[in-house]
Amino acid sequence: ATEERLKASLQEKEVLLQEIHHRVKNNMQVISSLLALQADELPDAAMRSVLLDVTHRVRSMAMVHEKLYQSADLARIDFAEYARSLLNYLWRAHGNVASNVALIVDMEPVLLSVNAAVPCGLILNELVGNALKHAFRGRNGGKVAVSLRGGLDGRVCLRVRDDGTGLPKGFDWRQAD
Fold first, then answer.
1. Burial (CB count <10 Å: 0-12, 13-18, 19+), residue 124
2. How far is the C-alpha of 139 from the C-alpha of 165, rounded, in Å?
3. Do 59 and 28 touch, CB atoms closer than 8 A?
4. What is the C-alpha to C-alpha distance for residues 46 and 16, in angstroms, rounded to an integer?
5. CA dist., res. 97 & res. 162, Å (int)
6. Overall average pLDDT of the 114-124 stretch
7. Contacts 24+ apart (CB under 8 A), 14-18
8. Paired strand residues for 77
9. Cα(38)–Cα(36) distance, rounded to whole angstroms?
């Protein structure tokens, strides 16, 4: 009887956690949609770009909760699967620019907790978004390569590379705004 109560309690908690992930995802998607709608209304291109960047960040966080909701393991997700979804979203979101940029993906399955997946997803969003916005200006396309490896020590290596124009000569990242 005690074992049955424990199993029932565990099942209730799993359903509750799944519902929480679902609601968080839905709320973030509403926020993302509102931001995108507001961005469409702005005449100022710079402000529109800022709001769209925020939209992509919120969407990348919502996608983590979407993957957790769909997963049998409610505490961890396969980051490679999530990263592929995020990259597909970013390529669609960046439309014309991304259509001329080849995406090369080389990722192995790596399980991450939500506490690790969200910041890693935001980092991936920033790196790829910056590459699509800045690396190929004045060029007709190029390549972005994303790789993911898990180490035996529990560390994860996420690498984003592009063959874009690179940083300007004399650029000092310590002095940049």
1. buried
2. 8
3. yes
4. 41
5. 14
6. 91
7. 14/74, 17/74, 18/69, 18/74
8. 112
9. 5
Please give the structure tokens belonging to residue 136.
């190929």
Which residue in 161, 168, 86 sits closest to 130, CA to CA?
161
DSSP letters spanning 5-70: HHHHHHHHHHHHHHHHHHHHHHHHHHHHHHHHHHHHH-S-HHHHHHHHHHHHHHHHHHHHHHHHHH
Backbone phi and psi for residue 75, each to the nearest 5 degrees, phi listed first: -105, -20
Q: How many CB atoms neighbour CB 44 within 10 A? A: 9
Amino acid identity at 118:
V
At residue 10, what is the residue type?
Answer: L
Inter-axis angle of helices 2-41 and 45-70, to 10 degrees? 160
The residue length of the chain stands at 177
Structure confidence by residue, pLDDT tens digits, 73-114: 767 889 999 999 999 999 998 888 888 999 999 999 999 988
Map tokens 């929480």 to a residue. Answer: 20
